[in-house]
Amino acid sequence: MTCEEPGPRPVAPAAGRPAAPPESRGCLYALSQPPLMLFLAVIASLLGLGALYDLLDLYRW
């Protein structure tokens, strides 16, 4: 299984110009999207605050 997305179909190069290699996107391409990074930042901050809350023993019975 691979993470690469299929690129656009290669177009026949014009006369005299070499064909450019197709651009591939790596597995981390989705992490560069702002909405996903914002969502992950919110989740990470909630987990971090919860861990800090437990670590500092702020919850006492």
Per DSSP, the total helix count is 1
Q: State the order of secondary-structure elements, H for helix, E for strand.
A: H
Shape annotation: rod-shaped
Quickly give the structural class.
mainly alpha
Helical fraction equals 25-40%
**Percentage of β-strand residues:** under 5%
> What would the average pLDDT be, to the nearest integer?
75
Rg from alpha-carbon coordinates:
23 Å
Sheet with most strands: none
SSE layout:
Layout: H1 34-55
Describe this structure in words.
Keywords: Membrane, Transmembrane, Transmembrane helix. The chain crosses the membrane at residues 36-56. Residues 1-23 are annotated as: Disordered. Residues 12-23 have a biased composition (Low complexity). With 61 residues, the protein is mainly alpha-helical. Helices cover 36% and strands 0% of the residues. The protein has one helix at 34-55. The relative contact order is 0.11.
Features:
single chain; 61 residues; mainly alpha; 1 helix; rod-shaped
Brief rundown of the structure:
The N and C termini lie far apart (51 Å). The protein has one helix and no strands. With 61 residues, it is mainly alpha-helical.
